[in-house]
Write a structure and sequence with these properties.
With 149 residues, this protein is an alpha/beta fold. It is 28% helix and 18% strand. The chain has a single domain (17-143), classed as Ribosomal protein L13 (Ribosomal Protein L13p, Chain: A, Alpha-Beta Complex). The longest helix has 13 residues, at 29-41.
């Protein structure tokens, strides 16, 4: 007698839309990004399916106050390319944080998600807010506690 185990795949209707808010003030970028990436994927859910978007939206506030460990804030380079020959542009983390608060977190989370259609869809569920106030109060987001170790 063999036991047959079926893989249970949740239906789209069984995945309710959930909204969470995280306070990023004083948090380390890498640890916060890995927590956000795992939450966006829905890996904490009992009905996790690696090929599905679990409809989890995360709002990160106070991203202007994120920190790095060590002296990475003054030395870590971020690259982008204009698309033209010789168009590689480099910016240091503290200048990028000053120019576009939260862009460092977006870059970090994006690198931790799948590099396909699912990853692009999951990135649309992430909202970055440099200050305290966000425009999604109507969705009644729950506070998602994150404690850096």
């Amino acid at each position: 007698m063999s036991l047959k185990h079926k893989t249970i795949t949740p239906k789209r209707e069984e995945l309710p839309e959930k909204w969470y808010v995280i306070d990023g003030a004083g948090q380390k970028v890498g640890r916060l990004a890995s927590f956000i990436a795992e939450s966006l994927r829905g890996k904490h859910l009992p009905n996790f399916a690696p090929h599905m978007n679990p409809n989890i939206h995360i709002i990160v506030t106070n991203t202007a106050h994120l920190i790095f460990s060590g002296n990475k804030m003054g030395t870590k380079p971020y690259y982008r390319h204009t698309g033209y020959p010789g168009g590689l542009r480099t910016i240091i983390a503290d200048k990028l944080q000053e120019k576009k608060p939260g862009e460092i977190l977006v870059h970090s989370v994006k690198g931790m998600l799948p590099h396909n259609r699912l990853g692009r869809a999951l990135m649309k569920n992430l909202r970055i807010v440099p200050g305290d106030e966000h425009a999604h109060a109507a969705q009644k987001p729950e506070a998602l506690p994150f404690v850096s170790k």
